[in-house]
Amino acid sequence: MKIHHIAIICSDYEVSKKFYIEVIGLKIIREVYREERKSYKLDLAIGEHYVIELFSFPDPPQRPSRPESCGLRHLAFSVENVSVKREELIEKGLICEDIRIDEYTGKEFFFTQDPDQLPLEFYEM
Questions:
Q1: 105 burial type by CB count under 10 A (0-12 exposed, 13-18 middle, 19+ buried)
Q2: Could you tell me which residue ranges the VOC domain spans (predicted)?
Q3: Coil, strand or helix at 14
């Protein structure tokens, strides 16, 4: 039917929380602390759509992300204007790759990364 959510375990909860809210622009749905797990769970949305569960866990293992390794390759967000979004993110201190053109759709896109180096794509809609 559709993707319900994407779960991300971060290494520094406060840094990632700030990143996804203040830099990317997601909205908080709810935040809970689960004492038994020593874990925060932050539900985030874009507009009215439930999108990401951000988790903290004590000492999560590292996951290699480059070069191409098995697992989630990247998380992609659709945007109206790729150039505007790229400039907004650069102004907020992110390093963004150059804008590319999808050879099959002709749409523009670029990549950056979150605080744990999860590749993030911004794709023109």
A1: exposed
A2: 2-125
A3: helix
